[in-house]
Design a protein that fits this description.
With 497 residues, the chain is an alpha/beta fold. The chain is built from 17 helices and 23 strands. The strands form six sheets. Strands 15-16-17-14-13-19-20 form a seven-stranded mixed beta sheet, sandwiched between helices. Helix 1 packs across helix 9 and helix 3 crosses helix 4.
C-alpha cells in the first residue's frame, strides 16, 4: 500500500507513521493509498523547520522572492495535466474540471509574482519640519493553512503563494481525503528554488489541526471548510494569540427573474449546481424563482440535468464524477430522503444511478427539488452534493429578503435582463460575492475572495490585496536626520510645525 507522508524541510519524511488513514479511488470505492496522520511532534518538526528557514527568507530581496514565484508558475504550467489527474484520482471530479482548478490556483501565483508592487508602502516628506513619515509592511513569521478536500490545489494556493511571496514560511495541513497533490506542489516549489523549510506539508486529522492551532510558533492560520469547524478554528486559534481567517460554509442562492433568458439561466444553474458533483463552496445549491419564472425554469433544468453523463473521472465522456467518499454519498442521499419526508417535491432523483463497471463507486446522479420552503432541512443545511433546490418568491424584494435572511453569506447571483433589478440586487443583498448573470461569482485573483455572516470568521478575505494585508503587518516610521544645532528637551505632545 502506497504511503503518502509529510513533507518537512525540503524532503519527504522517510520514517513509518504512527497512524494512517485511507485514501480512496472514488470511482471504484477501493482504497488506493494510505496517508500519514501527523502527531503533535510531526507538526512541531514542521514548524521548527519553518522557523529556521524564516529569517533568511524574510531577508531575501522581494525581487528574488518574485523570481521563485515565476519559476514555480512555469512548473505549474508544465505539469498542469499531471496535477489535474492526481486531483481527479483522489477527489473524483472529472479531469477537465480539475484542470480548471489548477488554472485558478495558478492565477493566484501570477498575482504573487507581482509582490514587489503589492508590498509597496507610502512615503510623505516633510510632514513636519525636516521630518519624513513612511509606512512598510513586514511578514509575520510562520503562517499555516488548513484546507478542504473539494479544491485540493486551488484553495491552498489562495494562501501559500501570497504568504510565501510576502516573506513568511508556511505549514500546510491539507485534507486527508485527497492529499497527494499537496506533496507534488511541495516538490515543484523545491524545483523552483524555494529554500528548504519555507514550505512544509503535514497530513492528518483533528490531532494535526489542533497542533497547528495551539503551536506558539505559528503566527497566522487560514482555513476553509464547514461553518462549525470554521468557528472552532477561529475561536481556538485566536485564543492562542494567532491571526485567523476562517472561511465557512455556504448556501448560495441564484435569483431568477421572469425577464431572464430562461435557457441561459437553466444552463448556468445546471453548470453551477452539478459541476464537481456539487462539492464546491461556491456551487449554486438554491434557486429562487420569482413570479412566473418558476415552472419554465424547473422544466428546463430537468431537461438538461437528466442528460448529464455521470461516470469515473478518467472517462473523457464523463461530465460529473462520484462524491469523494462513501460517507459523503450516504450523507447526501440521506438529505434527499429527508427532503421527501418534509414535503418537498422531488422532481429528479439521482439516488438510483448505477455506473456500469463501477458499481462500488461513490456515485449519485443529479437531483432536483421544487416547492422547497425555508423551514426545511434541505434548505437550512449545506448539502454539498449534486442537489439543487428551488424556492418560489413573489417579487424581487421577497427574493432579496430570502437571500439576506439566510445565515450564510458566501456568494449569490441574479439572472435578469433588467439593469435596475440587477443594480438593486447587488446593492441590497447581504453576501460577500455577487454575480449578475454570472452563476459562480468567484473573483479573479487580483481581487479578494470571501463571504459574510457565517461564511467568514475574521476580518480579511483570502488572496488579492486582503491576502497581502493578512500575511503582513504594518509599521510606520517617523524619521528626522537633523543638521547639527542647539537642542533642548521638549515635554509637550509632538505636533507638526
Amino acid at each position: 500500500m502506497r504511503t503518502i507522508n509529510h513533507w518537512i524541510n525540503g524532503r519527504t519524511v522517510d520514517r513509518e507513521p504512527e497512524r494512517t488513514g485511507p485514501v480512496y479511488d472514488p470511482a471504484t470505492g477501493q482504497q488506493a493509498a494510505q496517508v500519514a496522520y501527523a502527531t503533535g511532534d510531526d507538526v512541531d518538526a514542521a514548524v521548527r523547520a519553518a522557523q529556521a528557514a524564516y529569517p533568511a527568507w524574510r531577508d531575501t530581496s522581494v525581487v528574488k522572492r518574485a523570481r521563485v514565484m515565476f519559476a514555480f508558475l512555469a512548473l505549474l504550467q508544465r505539469h498542469r495535466q499531471e496535477l489535474a489527474e492526481i486531483i481527479a484520482s483522489e477527489h473524483g471530479k472529472v479531469v477537465p474540471d480539475a484542470a480548471g482548478e489548477v488554472q485558478r490556483g495558478m492565477e493566484v501565483v501570477e498575482v504573487a509574482c507581482g509582490i514587489p508592487h503589492l508590498l509597496k508602502g507610502d512615503y510623505s516628506e516633510n510632514v513636519s519640519t525636516e521630518i519624513d513619515l513612511y509606512s512598510i509592511r513586514q511578514p509575520l513569521g510562520v503562517a499555516a493553512g488548513i484546507t478542504p478536500f473539494n479544491f485540493p490545489i486551488m484553495v491552498p494556493m489562495w494562501m501559500h503563494p501570497i504568504a510565501i511571496a510576502c516573506g513568511n514560511s508556511f505549514v500546510l495541513k491539507p485534507s486527508e481525503r485527497d492529499p497527494s497533490v499537496s506533496t507534488r506542489v511541495a516538490e515543484l516549489y523545491a524545483e523552483a528554488g524555494l529554500p528548504d523549510g519555507v514550505f512544509n506539508v503535514v497530513h492528518g486529522d483533528k490531532t494535526a489541526v489542533d497542533a497547528v492551532l495551539d503551536h506558539p510558533g505559528i503566527s497566522a492560520v487560514s482555513f476553509v471548510g464547514s461553518t462549525p469547524i470554521a468557528r472552532y478554528v477561529y475561536e481556538r486559534g485566536t485564543t492562542h494569540g494567532k491571526r485567523v481567517q476562517a472561511l465557512g460554509g455556504a448556501k448560495n442562492h441564484a435569483v431568477v427573474m421572469p425577464d431572464a433568458d430562461m435557457d441561459s439561466a437553466a444552463d448556468a444553474l445546471v453548470s453551477a449546481a452539478y459541476g464537481s458533483t456539487g462539492q464546491r463552496c461556491m456551487a449554486i445549491s438554491t434557486a429562487v424563482a420569482v413570479g412566473r419564472a418558476g415552472d419554465a425554469l424547473v422544466d428546463k433544468v430537468v431537461e438538461r440535468a437528466s442528460r448529464l453523463r455521470t461516470g469515473p473521472a478518467g472517462d473523457p465522456s464523463s461530465e460529473m464524477g462520484p462524491l469523494v467518499t462513501g460517507a459523503a454519498r450516504d450523507k447526501v442521499a440521506g438529505l434527499i430522503e429527508t427532503g421527501v419526508h418534509e414535503g418537498a417535491k422531488l422532481v429528479l432523483d439521482g439516488r438510483d444511478l448505477r455506473v456500469e463497471g463501477h458499481e462500488d463507486g461513490f456515485f449519485l446522479g443529479p437531483s432536483l427539488f421544487d416547492e422547497v420552503t425555508t423551514d426545511m432541512t434541505i434548505y437550512k443545511e449545506e448539502i454539498f452534493g449534486p442537489v439543487l433546490i428551488v424556492l418560489r418568491a413573489a417579487d424581487i424584494d421577497e427574493a432579496i429578503r430570502m437571500v439576506s435572511d439566510n445565515p450564510y453569506g458566501n456568494g449569490t447571483a441574479i439572472f435578469t435582463s433588467n439593469g435596475a433589478a440587477g443594480r438593486k440586487f447587488q446593492n441590497e443583498v447581504q453576501a460577500g460575492m455577487i454575480g449578475v448573470n454570472i452563476p459562480i461569482p468567484v473573483p479573479m485573483a487580483f481581487y479578494s475572495f470571501g463571504g459574510w455572516k457565517q461564511s467568514l470568521f475574521g476580518d480579511l478575505h483570502v488572496h488579492g490585496p486582503e491576502g497581502v494585508a493578512f500575511y503582513t503587518r504594518g509599521k510606520v516610521v517617523t524619521s528626522r536626520w537633523p543638521v547639527p544645532r542647539d537642542s533642548a528637551v521638549e515635554l509637550g505632545f509632538p505636533t507638526s510645525r
